[in-house]
């Protein structure tokens, strides 16, 4: 690394409140060609912040890449290790944004970059981390909408697997729901405003579900899509980003609480002027219901359309904003001190400016890089092919002591049950700000930020056995780190149920019958049981079948003997699922021999005259003379049903009718048959005269 020759501090002092903001001289490190974005994360699990830098590549080739600089924990970094982006093509689009998360559940951080590759292949490229700052060689290329400009990460369907969302220049968002194994479902496109330049994730209506916000350059709007928690979203709501001044349009945005009311606000960098070298900071204060107030605008200043990073840089308890710039300025990084009411700086006051050691510091990120409790800054100098690190040396801060406790949703769980781990971080100095790392022994289960109530919660699913769970508060923003005591959670095998059904019941001897057993975990357990199902007829085993997809096992047989057969399906169980069984009685009957019948039909008078009553009697007989048929006879006049009569003890059924007009009428008697006797029918023609 190279450090400026003079080690003097860069200090700005405000006499009105004596709040001092100062940084050590910038330290730069070389990275790939034309770095565009930078983010801070721990890529080798050593507890020290590292840097990931997205490099667009030279305009002659546009070979994009990702540079990782492993941190030493003191604000210095090891030389960059650069990995080429695969979906990058000559003369086509470039990578310009990066999102970080554990996409395959191995507790190692992965990255996702928006790439264009070619007009026919816009994509997000997912690089799975190895845990040492490098990445697996097989990158996933996931199709998204045309010209993706920004990518963000969040669990939008609350299944514990991280999802991705991109803002695409054609006016859409592409949502890719994660499967938790590093792969993703096919994209779903959502329409927003014209030319969305940036996308951010937050809870804008306080319902605990993640929402999405985008900044549209061409339509000068911010679109907010409220999440339903199942991977779907409400229709976008649009909010004007810069009032009536359409000369300034959104370039980037960030989510934070700018006025300390506990509600998420949007901070936007607006660009304007010739060649877009003038910028303006805008703030949309959230109402807590998913809507936002009219924008609060700062005075325009020289800068450009760089990223926005939020943090309390001068340690006054108020949110500040750092903005990167495109202009080739010696002091291209702008810092706006927050007033705690949604405004930044004094009216008409220019922002504070700091050198990043290079030109065009477009990408900017804020984090505590050396563990001193102060928020530092790092910028990607696009035209200089470097990153610049500014270590914060604002007024010395004695870290306030904190206490971290860990609560679990239950002390005893079953396999597949979602266990909620809630860490509570408290301090006499106020509500701590920072991150909590949840561990099972030495295995990292997840990372979550501390919310406004001092809590951080993560859902986990644990394996069989007893687990010693801990929560570690990272310490930041003037608060010391702390660890919880170990909390024991025991996970037992999940109970199961077997649902058994027959394809036909009752059946007859010799008939094929299929029995299907469906094995399922009993809530709160989860997952699909595996193993075998043994089918028994009484105490005799008639077959054993492996449990297949969906937890089902089927067995087909037939029965030679009539009677009631008790069929039992016995699930074997395995180390994570408890055995279970279910029985049913299969009734098997001997085949029945039906007897033929004859039906006779007589009229009490034929012919008759209009208005005269006539009685029709059907007599059903067994020609063999061995029995009297039972059941019903249906009478028709033409095709119309006029009566349905039950046979009496003599096998007869009658009905009476009065005809209201002359003509020849067909009377039909139909015997329906039953389990013993076959159907039969008879017709006659009734003449009705005037």
From TrEMBL:
Q: Which UniProt keywords apply?
A: Signal
Signal peptide coordinates: none
Which top-level group of life is the source organism from? Bacteria
InterPro entries noted in UniProt: Big_3_5, FG-GAP, Ig-like_fold, Integrin_alpha_N
Instruction: Write down the Pfam families for this protein, in alphabetical order.
Output: Big_3_5, FG-GAP_3
Against SUPFAM superfamilies, the record matches this protein to: Integrin alpha N-terminal domain (SSF69318)
- Listed name of the protein: FG-GAP-like repeat-containing protein
Say which species the protein is native to: Singulisphaera sp. Ch08
């Amino acid at each position: 690394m190279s450090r400026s020759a003079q080690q003097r501090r860069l200090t700005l002092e405000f006499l009105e409140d004596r709040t001092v903001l100062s940084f050590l001289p910038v330290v730069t490190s070389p990275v790939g060609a034309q770095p565009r974005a930078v983010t801070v994360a721990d890529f080798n699990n050593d507890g020290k912040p590292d840097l990931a830098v997205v490099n667009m590549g030279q305009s002659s080739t546009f070979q994009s890449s990702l540079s990782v600089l492993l941190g030493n924990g003191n604000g210095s970094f090891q030389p960059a290790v650069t990995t080429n982006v695969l979906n990058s093509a000559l003369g086509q689009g470039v990578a310009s944004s990066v999102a970080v998360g554990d996409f395959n559940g191995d507790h190692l951080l992965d990255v996702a970059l928006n790439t264009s590759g070619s007009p026919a292949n816009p994509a997000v490229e997912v690089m799975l981390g190895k845990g040492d700052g490098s990445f697996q060689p097989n990158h996933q290329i996931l199709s998204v909408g045309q010209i993706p400009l920004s990518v963000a990460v969040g669990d939008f369907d609350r299944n514990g697997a991280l999802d991705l969302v991109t803002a695409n220049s054609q006016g859409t968002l592409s949502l890719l729901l994660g499967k938790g194994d590093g792969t993703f479902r096919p994209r779903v496109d959502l329409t927003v405003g014209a030319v969305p330049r940036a996308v951010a994730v937050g809870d804008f209506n306080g319902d605990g579900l993640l929402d999405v916000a985008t900044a549209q350059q061409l339509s000068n709007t911010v679109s907010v899509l409220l999440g339903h928690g199942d991977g779907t979203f409400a229709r976008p709501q649009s909010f004007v980003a810069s009032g009536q001044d359409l000369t300034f349009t959104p370039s980037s945005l960030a989510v934070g609480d700018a006025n300390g009311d506990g509600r998420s606000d949007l901070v936007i960098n607006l660009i304007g002027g010739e060649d877009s070298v003038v910028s303006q900071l805008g703030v949309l204060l959230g109402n807590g219901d998913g809507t936002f107030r009219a924008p609060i605008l700062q005075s325009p200043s020289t800068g450009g359309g760089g990223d926005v990073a939020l943090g309390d840089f001068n340690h006054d308890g108020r949110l500040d904003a750092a903005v990167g710039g495109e202009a080739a300025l010696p002091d291209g990084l702008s810092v706006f001190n927050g007033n705690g009411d949604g405004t930044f700086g004094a009216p008409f006051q220019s922002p504070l400016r700091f050198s990043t050691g290079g030109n065009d510091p477009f990408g900017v990120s804020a984090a505590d890089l050396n563990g001193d409790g102060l928020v530092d800054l790092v910028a990607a100098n696009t035209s200089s092919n470097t990153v610049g690190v500014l270590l914060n040396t604002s007024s010395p801060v004695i870290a306030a002591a904190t206490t971290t406790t860990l609560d679990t949703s239950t002390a005893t769980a079953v396999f597949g049950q979602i266990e909620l781990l809630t860490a509570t971080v408290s301090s006499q100095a106020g509500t701590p700000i920072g991150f909590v790392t949840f561990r099972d022994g030495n295995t990292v289960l997840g990372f979550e930020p501390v919310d406004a109530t001092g809590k951080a919660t993560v859902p986990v699913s644990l394996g069989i056995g007893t687990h010693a769970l801990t929560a570690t508060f990272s310490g930041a923003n003037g608060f010391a780190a702390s660890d919880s005591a170990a909390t024991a959670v025991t996970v037992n095998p999940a109970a199961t149920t077997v649902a058994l059904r027959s394809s036909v019941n009752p059946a007859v001897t010799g008939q094929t019958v299929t029995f299907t057993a469906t094995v399922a975990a009993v809530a709160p357990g989860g997952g699909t049981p595996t193993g075998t199902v043994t089918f028994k007829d009484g105490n005799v085993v008639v077959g054993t079948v492996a449990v297949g997809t969906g937890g089902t096992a089927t067995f087909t047989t037939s029965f030679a003997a009539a009677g009631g057969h008790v069929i039992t399906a016995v699930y074997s169980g395995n180390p994570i699922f408890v055995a279970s069984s279910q029985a049913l009685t299969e009734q098997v009957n001997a085949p029945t021999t039906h007897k033929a019948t004859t039906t006779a039909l007589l009229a009490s008078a034929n012919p008759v005259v209009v208005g005269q009553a006539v009685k029709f009697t059907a007599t059903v007989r067994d020609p063999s003379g061995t029995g009297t048929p039972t059941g019903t006879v249906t009478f028709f006049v033409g095709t119309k049903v006029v009566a349905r009569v039950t046979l009496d003890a003599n096998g007869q059924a009658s009905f009476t009718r009065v005809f209201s007009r002359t003509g020849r009428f067909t009377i039909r008697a139909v015997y329906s048959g039953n389990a013993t006797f076959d159907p039969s029918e008879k017709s006659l023609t009734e003449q009705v005269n005037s």
